[in-house]
Amino acid sequence: MSTPETNPETRSNNPEQQIRDIAEVAAVEIITTAAVHLMSAAAVKCGLAEGNDAEELKDLDEARKLITALAGLITSAAPEVGSQHAGPLRDGLRALQLAFREASVIEDAPGQGPGEKLTGPVS
């Protein structure tokens, strides 16, 4: 039998419980979750989504913004989350920067691609 404190529906509607739930999550987990969400959205906007509508979902202007935000998050958070977490995030960011470069009809100058002001040129 579930109580109001353990019932998932009640917990999600209880702001005090939501605050306690967030307080229990480590900062590194919140940072990596945010980065993964940015990566997923950027991948879709670069046209890397699965399915027949991948090309329709491509929006390189939006992808540029998401990749730049991701670069800022990873660059600033790397010292705090440690190399164990930062390394894979950097790899994902680089893959997205390369995917953007490949998907773009107009080539950015070296160091001018999305996030490259924060990460350096990607080739």
Automatic annotation (TrEMBL):
<dbReference type="InterPro" id="IPR014995">
    <property type="entry name" value="DUF1844"/>
</dbReference>
<dbReference type="Pfam" id="PF08899">
    <property type="entry name" value="DUF1844"/>
</dbReference>
<protein>
    <recommendedName>
        <fullName>DUF1844 domain-containing protein</fullName>
    </recommendedName>
</protein>
